[in-house]
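Consider one such protein record:
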Amino acid sequence: MGKSGDSVETQLKIHYVAKTAQGSVAKEGIFGIETGNEIILQKQELPNNVRSVDVEVMGQGRAFLQFNYQYYTSNLTSPATTIVHPPLHPSTTQRPIQPKESNAIPQTLARVVHEYFNITASGNITSKVTMSLDVCFSYKPQTEEEKESNMVILQINLPSGYIANNDRTMKLKDSVEIISKIDIQQSGTLLEIYFEKLEADEEQCLVLNADKSQDVGELKPTLIEIYDYYNDRRRTRIFYELKG
């Protein structure tokens, strides 16, 4: 939030009240804008369950108010493995081409992109107000020289209407030795788990718990990604759905 004015001295207070779908107050606050800070961006992150915001402006001057939000759409076609076929050009001769007795795809006609990570996930509703998520993953090097990965980030989105159980999530760092850092973002709906490295072909599994923040109908598949911090092309993504 910022302000620009030509001749009027700025002295504004902007009071906002963010509400849930049921009308209860989720967050409330005041932005103070005056001549000394009128070009400074001010921002607040609203809870994930906010559905409306009431704004009251008091004072004189002009201000610019902006709301940003983000969402993702599910694409159940995994981009991890791709086969690329180059265009075929017509032959300059009229002689028929005799097929060879082979089931192999010629190297010049196909290129398979190596998938460096395997990942599986199973989400379950454990009660009326809780869910659990089992995530297993492993590092699959392409060559023998790549026995260890670079730093790896496991990025887990939670289904709409659920937020991470902070205490139990942060305790993962104490119980799982290879975890170096855990970030809980976007009002508890996104987890980023950092690993200094992963050993080749060693499967690791985590159990995460989340609490229901609101009822949401027709839940969509939810995204999980794992990728190499220093080489973004080494990335695998899957979608999971809640059961139970």
About this structure: The radius of gyration is 26 Å. Helices lie at 166-170, 172-175. The chain is about 5% helix and 40% strand. Residues 76-112 have pLDDT under 50 and may be disordered.
